[in-house]
Specification:
This is 25S rRNA (uridine-N(3))-methyltransferase BMT5-like domain-containing protein. One of its GO terms (molecular function) is rRNA (uridine-N3-)-methyltransferase activity. It comes from Asparagus officinalis (Garden asparagus). By secondary structure, the protein is mainly alpha-helical. It has a domain of 33 residues. It contains 2 helices and no strands. It is extended. The two termini are 19 Å apart.
């Protein structure tokens, strides 16, 4: 999970919330229109984070990223 993988995740999320951000996890952006909780909301930003594979080491090879 986010909190297990990134040690600063909790404090980063809390900081964003203090600034008034609404943070939603596990949202399928391809189905937002069909979700009654989301289809009428307006968003200033939607951030799609590409998940890191979790390996350690050099990441200069685009096939590894």
């Amino acid at each position: 999970t986010l909190l297990k993988k990134y040690k600063n995740a909790r404090s980063n999320l809390e900081c964003l919330k203090e600034f008034g951000a609404t943070i939603l996890h596990n949202i399928d952006a391809t189905r937002m229109k069909t979700c009654s909780d989301l289809n009428m909301r307006k968003f200033d930003r939607i951030v799609f984070n590409f998940p890191h594979a979790g390996f350690r080491g050099k990441e200069d090879n685009m096939r590894q990223i």
